[in-house]
Structures are given as structure tokens and as C-alpha cells.
Design goal:
The chain is mainly β and about 260 residues long. It contains three helices and 15 strands. Strand 14 (about 240-245) and strand 15 (about 250-260) form a beta hairpin.
């Protein structure tokens, strides 16, 4: 589950600038909406029937080693029969500025069978730079990359950005961001308000495209379509995601929400 901004001049010539740069409509520097320290627990399933995994996201848990940062910590992986077919575990930590909740650094580890990946990306006003180191059977592959998009957001700051918007019915959000190891252009459309899983929710469609090294867009064929519900309250947290992907229908459902 590797899921979820901004339009300004890049190092590309104006004549070569891709059209999506003009479509991006996320505020470049504004503080993101504050969130109280909280823990969100989710389950993943196929068609809501066969459990495939679980993960937790902790916003704002204190760590004496990092007193000057607002931390977001997420961890989890596949379970049950899905783990037999595709054993996968992840552990991500995002270091955000407490003043505006914008990212400074994103680190993580991923393990899929014998392959272990270590991620480290730095964020600043010019964009993102970092590396992904993959180790398998004693062999190591280093992939260094940059994303020259000003004031980029990571996975969790991207989520905080979405909840910071007005999200009126019919609104379309165009958000370039660098969620984990690859930049994407995310397009969300607010479909309306409805009761979902017993809560008042904002319903949105999601579409993703990869942003290539030359800033052009590539189709993200693993995701065919997706629908997101976030709570229509002061929390504005993801309640459920339903996605049609290359392996079928995948659902991510909020199972617990508690204060830290």
C-alpha cells in the first residue's frame, strides 16, 4: 500500500514546461492544517472480504531523540494468504516542521521476500533529493534521484495538504508530490458528501500519473481507478479507499482512531 503539490518555475525552459505545471493548484508555502497527536489503524482486503494486510499511522507521537520535529510514523504489511503470496513489510518516518507541517526528511525501509530497500529523501524549497538502496542476495543497487519541484510534499504532508483544502463539491485538486520513492501527479475530484461507514464523509475520486525525470507524465497502469472517503468533520481523516488495481479490487478501511 503505497498510497496519496504545486506550480512554479522549474529548471526547464519555459517552452519545454509540461502543461500540468499550470494545472497544479496547491498553495506552495501555506501552513498545513494542524492535527492532534493521533493513531489511525487500517486493514487492507480484497473486495472487503479477504483480509490482506494492516498498517498504523501515528501523527505527532513524541520522540525524545527528535524534539524539534513533528513526526509521522507508519508501519505494517501483508498478512494471511496475501503474505504467503507476497510477503511485504514497511516502516516509514516523516520529519515535518512543527510550524507548518511541511516535510524536511522522509526515511523508510521496505522488505519484500529477500529484497530489502532503504529510503532517504530530503525536502527543501527547491524540491527533493535522495536515494533508494536495494539489497538482495548480497547484491546492492543504489538509485539516486532528484525531483526539481519547489516545496514538494511527501506522503503524509500530502495527506495533510488535502485535508487543509476547502474541498467543496465539484472541486478538482491537482497535486504533484513525492510520496515515497517516485513523484506522482495526483488528481482528486470532490464527488459530494454522504454517510459512509457510519460517518459523514467527503467522497473523492483519485487518479495518479508518474512524473518522469524530464517532468513528463506517464500512465500509472497499476491503478485503474480509486475512490476515497475522508471524514467530513474537524479531523478529516481517511475512512476508506476502494481501488481497482492490476490484481483486482483492494480496500483500505479505518478500523480504529485513538488519541496518543
Amino acid at each position: 500500500m503505497k498510497f496519496l503539490l504545486l506550480s512554479f518555475a522549474l529548471v526547464l525552459p519555459v517552452s519545454a514546461a509540461p502543461t500540468w505545471l499550470k494545472q497544479a493548484n496547491i498553495p506552495p508555502k501555506a501552513p498545513l492544517r494542524k492535527i492532534s497527536p493521533t493513531k489511525l489503524s487500517y486493514t487492507m482486503s480484497w473486495n472487503g472480504r479477504l483480509k490482506a494486510g494492516n498498517f498504523d499511522i501515528l501523527f505527532g507521537k513524541k520522540d525524545p531523540k527528535y524534539p524539534k520535529h513533528f513526526l509521522v510514523h507508519a508501519y505494517g504489511g501483508s498478512t494471511g494468504w496475501a503474505h504467503v503470496l507476497y510477503p511485504f513489510q514497511f516502516n516509514y518516518i516523516s520529519f515535518l516542521r512543527p510550524s507548518n507541517l511541511r516535510p524536511l526528511m522522509f526515511i523508510g525501509t521496505e522488505k519484500a521476500r529477500a529484497e530489502i530497500s532503504k529510503l532517504e529523501y530530503l525536502f527543501d524549497s527547491k524540491g527533493v533529493k535522495g536515494s533508494k538502496i536495494e539489497t538482495e542476495n548480497g547484491k546492492t543497487d543504489l538509485d539516486k534521484s532528484t525531483f526539481n519541484y519547489p516545496h514538494s510534499l511527501d506522503l503524509f504532508a500530502g495527506l495533510l495538504q488535502v485535508r487543509s483544502l476547502s474541498l467543496k463539491n465539484g472541486d478538482t485538486v491537482v497535486m504533484p508530490f513525492h510520496p515515497i520513492a517516485t513523484p506522482y501527479l495526483c488528481k482528486l475530484r470532490v464527488l459530494g458528501r454522504e454517510m459512509h461507514q457510519g460517518r459523514k464523509c467527503i467522497k473523492m475520486s483519485i487518479a495518479l500519473q508518474k512524473i518522469d525525470d524530464d517532468m513528463s507524465l506517464k500512465d500509472y497502469k497499476k491503478l485503474k481507478s480509486a475512490t476515497l472517503w475522508i471524514s467530513d468533520d474537524t479531523w478529516r481523516i481517511p475512512v476508506e479507499i476502494r481501488a481497482k488495481v492490476f490484481v483486482g479490487d483492494v480496500r483500505v478501511l479505518l478500523t480504529k482512531h485513538e488519541a496518543l
